[in-house]
Write a sequence for this structure.
């Protein structure tokens, strides 16, 4: 009888630990699925941006280089390069980014609403712009001078 009680007493923590492993495994599986989904969205967005840059006659790899990708974006839409500094200012940067997205849409003959779509759901609208039938029409903003 004492052997039975000893076995029950020592196996109880193992059962609790086993239940915790199931929860951790479920959390790990959910995290893994979320990571795969995130990476898939990231790849689609980068591919779309790469294609947009290529259509505009710029190197596609520029989509991968931080800061330089915004230099190229400003060149595509016709904005001066100092606008990149505006992107670094809190609150102002959000407004400037939306304006740049609208300018990009206009550079490809799309509406302002499409530009808002790029700003809010870039991972959807950039591939549509890049892989769709839209043609680059030149900078939407004419430089002064």
């Amino acid at each position: 009888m004492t052997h039975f009680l000893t076995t029950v007493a020592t196996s109880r923590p193992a059962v609790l630990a086993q239940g915790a492993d199931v929860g951790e495994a479920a959390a790990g599986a959910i995290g893994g699925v979320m990571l795969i989904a995130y990476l898939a969205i990231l790849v689609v967005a980068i591919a779309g941006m790469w294609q947009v840059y290529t259509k505009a006659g710029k190197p596609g790899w520029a989509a991968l280089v931080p800061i330089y990708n915004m230099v190229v974006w400003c060149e595509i839409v016709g904005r001066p390069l100092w606008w990149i500094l505006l992107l670094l200012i809190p609150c102002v940067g959000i407004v400037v980014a939306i304006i740049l997205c609208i300018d990009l849409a206009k550079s490809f003959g799309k509406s302002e609403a499409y530009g808002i779509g790029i700003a809010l759901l870039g991972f959807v609208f950039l591939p549509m712009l890049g892989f769709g039938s839209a043609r680059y029409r030149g900078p939407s903003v004419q430089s002064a001078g």
Remarks:
- The mean pLDDT is 87.
- Helices lie at 2-55, 68-77, 83-87, 92-107, 112-120, 122-131.
- The two ends are 98 Å apart (CA to CA).
- Residues 86 and 92 are 7 Å apart (CA to CA).
